[in-house]
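Technical annex B. To support the medicinal chemistry partners, we prepared a structural model of the target in complex with NAP, based solely on the information shown next.
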Amino acid sequence: MKEADIGLIGLGVMGANLALNIAEKGFRVAVHNRTTARIDTFMREAGGLAENIVPCETMEALTEAIARPRPIILMVQAGEAVDQQIAALRPLLAREDIIIDAGNANFRDTRRRMAALAEGGPQFLGVGVSGGEEGARHGPSIMVGGSAAAYRRIEPILQAIAARHEGEDCQAWLGPDGAGHFVKTIHNGIEYADMQMIAEIYGILRDAHGLPAGEIAPVFAGWNEGRLNSYLIEITAAVLAAQDPASGRPMVDVILDRAGQKGTGRWSAIEAQTLGIPATAIEAAVAARSLSAMKEERDAAQKRFGVPSPAAGPASGDVLAILEQALFAGKIVAYAQGFSVMAAASREFGWNLPLGTVARIWRAGCIIRSQFLGEIAEAFDNAPETGNLLMTGAFMPLIEAAHPHLRRVVARSAEAGLPVPALSAALAHFDQFRRGQGTANLIQAQRDFFGAHGFERIDAEGTHHGDWPPLR
Ligand code: NAP
């Protein structure tokens, strides 16, 4: 029997779809799953693609079925399962074989695993795969980290299975060790911010302007034709237009407002903090999900404090245009923060991350895909030395034009008691960032007062201390 080109372990939602994608592109893929019953089900459902798939009941059978050097994708639950699979595979593999962890690993785990395998092998790639079930089946965005040589060996397969944007495949080697999984983590952080800001604008339209879901849907559909054009805006319009067959009400109105999270958004906020890079819109979005989960406490607080019922009047064309611009401004800041975190990680770990390429491979396949990312790619291509989107030639005029609208929306929401945590975090970031004379002089004075931490002076070199008066 012809040897397989690649192996895949883990036939869950993502693994099964990725295996079908690989088989469909003409590659022979050997598959294995811990629970072997899943392999049979998978083969039955593979239909005509089954002829390109080699079902393997054991790890040994899997490793024997693949042509050397053997690339094997792990698509199992992130965490301990990955360590277990590596431990089981290692004795069966040679130095030049390649384990490809394509799950949502924490990049710190990827660094640890790569370091542990550096001596003796096999090779190890940490690969971020975005796009959910649909992406895995028909073309995800693929972010590769690890040895460039190992990547080259699987590049033709990744090129074939990745999403395409205007003919270009949305996959790339982004850097050594944890670079791929780090970029995937920040992708998810940006995704959180993007979704939260969209939800905040929905909240304004629902609660301040009193629009029912069915009337908000065409607003988002219209925005999807403009500069906000993106998958997330598109699905927002579709979600808001959907009806619950059981109650006949808008689907969104029968869904409990308690959001889940699996951890990657939180990791992006943690890594931003660890690197000392402000990513406040992302942090606000993560916190907003956490606060959303406190449903009972929020209900109790509403009973105690009440909620204002802002009557902002009808959502006129002017109002909608302001909201669209405000969302655009917030989005610019959130993406700028995410890219700044990646630029800082690149410096910290010596990855040399190509920010333009990151934006380019996010243009299709992944959840935050949008035309906006094409503009970001171009902005970084034209200014590769800057890691700050806000200071690129392309984005300076965009944020300049849009931030007054964000200001208006945040101010009015604050007065009306409407929570817009991510939008207001984005505005505060812009306002602090563009102000050369901030207020950290007072912070430094306080630190010196209570802890003799010292401060720099505006008129002299070195570290100084204040002659602080004693407290009475
Ligand atoms: P899933 O449907 O829950 O499937 C999990 C898979 O992991 C199953 O094949 C399961 O095998 C296997 N597994 C779990 N623990 C294991 C262990 N200790 N040893 C061996 N195998 C084990 O998960 P999924 O959604 O496909 O996600 C897989 C990975 O992709 C995760 O890292 C996830 O974060 C990432 N991811 C998911 C999405 C998405 O939209 N779902 C998007 C991007 C990335 P059994 O059948 O034996 O339980």
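Notes passed to the chemistry partners:
The two ends are 89 Å apart (CA to CA).
The domain at 6-177 is CATH 3.40.50.720 (Rossmann fold).
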